[in-house]
């Protein structure tokens, strides 16, 4: 087997504004799909009953565990305003489970 160097043609230059608009379109199309998938997963599970613990603050990790998604997704949705996040410091936010369910439309019309 020979050691040969294969030179590929340089990729076409894409202006940064085009990259940003393509990424924005991709994200805008992806978010509803991911939200729908999370809703389907949560609806298959038994939703948490309306208990006093729904008013306690929980971490993004706890919300992610309850929804069976990644913690980074919950944190991202909190930053983007899709979920109501409660800042408790410069780098820390917490969520209320009842609000998470309501924001995702999984509360069954409560609140």
**Side-by-side strand order of the widest sheet:** 1-3-2
Element pattern in H and E: HEHHEEH
What is the percentage of strand-forming residues?
5-15%
Unreliable spans: none
How many H/I helices?
Answer: 4
Oligomeric form of this entry?
single chain
Our Rg estimate from Cα atoms comes to 20 Å
Domain tally: 1
Question: How far from one another are the termini?
Answer: 70 Å
- The percent range for helix content is 40-55%
Give a quick account of the main beta sheet: strands, pairing sense, barrel closure: 3 strands, antiparallel
- Structural class by sheet pairing and helices: mainly alpha
Task: Give a count of the beta strands, DSSP E runs of length 2 or more.
Answer: 3
Please state the average pLDDT score.
80
- General shape: elongated
Write a brief caption for the model.
By secondary structure, the protein is mostly helical. Helices cover 49% and strands 7% of the residues. The protein has helices at residues 16-44, 60-67, 71-80, 97-103; strands at residues 57-58, 86-87, 93-96.
Describe the structure.
The chain has 111 residues and is mainly alpha-helical. It has one domain. It is 49% helix and 7% strand. It has a three-stranded antiparallel beta sheet with strand order 1-3-2. Strand 2 and strand 3 form a beta hairpin. Helix 2 crosses helix 3. The chain is elongated and about 65 Å long.
Which secondary structure elements does this structure contain, and how are they paired or packed?
Blueprint: H1 16-44, E1 57-58, H2 60-67, H3 71-80, E2 86-87, E3 93-96, H4 97-103
Helix pairs in contact: 2-3
